[in-house]
Amino acid sequence: MQHPQQLVRALQQNIGKVIVGKDDVVELTLIALLCRGHVLIEDVPGVGKTTLASALAKSLDCTFKRIQFTPDVTPSDVTGYSIANFKTGDMEFKPGAVMSQIVLADEINRTSPKTQSSLLEVMEEYQITVDGVTHQLPRPFIVLATQNPIEFVGTYPLPEAQMDRFFMKISIGYPSQEDEIDILGRYTTATAPMQSLEPICSAEEVLMMQGAVNEIYTAKEARSYVAAIVAATRRHAMLRLGVSTRGAISLTRAAQAFALLEGRNYILPEDIQRMARSVLSHRVSLSPEARMKGILPERIIDGVLAQVQVPVKVS
To answer: What pTM was estimated for this model as a whole?
Structure first.
């Protein structure tokens, strides 16, 4: 079995056949997978959100399902339901869309809060309960949810408590002009790039890599650095709500995964800084003054990192 670093680099290269020029986005998504976390992709239509999820599923040889969220989608569509079998007289469970290893929750903010909650509960507990019977989800399990940051008519924004369930938030963004030329060349041939993808990593290997993340050593100085960053967000004048303890745990785990990909068995302050934006920005709530000034959460996180003292030595 290959080293986790080699497997992840191979996955990046494979997914890069369809997601061009976005190695950092692919790496963040894989880090979330290694940390058993879920990803919120906030971006405009047509930049490859669905393609990213599909390419990840094909590269991992995992099952993949997509939920197109609309106001009429119900919780049972997500989790499943029980129905009577008139031949046997028994109740049979019909699994919903989440009974898959990779789930794309497309435009999650277009469905009702009740349906949103049904998905987010599954994300936290990795199981569903229907009519008193609990069903375990397949492993590995990851949800990639999308939302459009510029269309808010008819949407139901996720509240802070539900945003906190997402391990990280990423944005794919438009490609550079050179990358777009490359994309046009790949997608105007007889064979679509997605059709050429082959599985290069099994579910068992993903579970192995997830276990390897737990083995990365986290020194007390590194844990103190994370705690100091989180504490600084909680007393920041431009924030109404700082980072939760769940956010602190997620930042530490993300740093562990990044260290693993760098070939180290311990984390450095630089690993924490590298992950902070993606893991923490969606977990803070801006004050009214900050919103009026148009200050972005990412800018505040950058400011916090600049202010908090970095450990001189991590042992």
So the answer is: 0.92
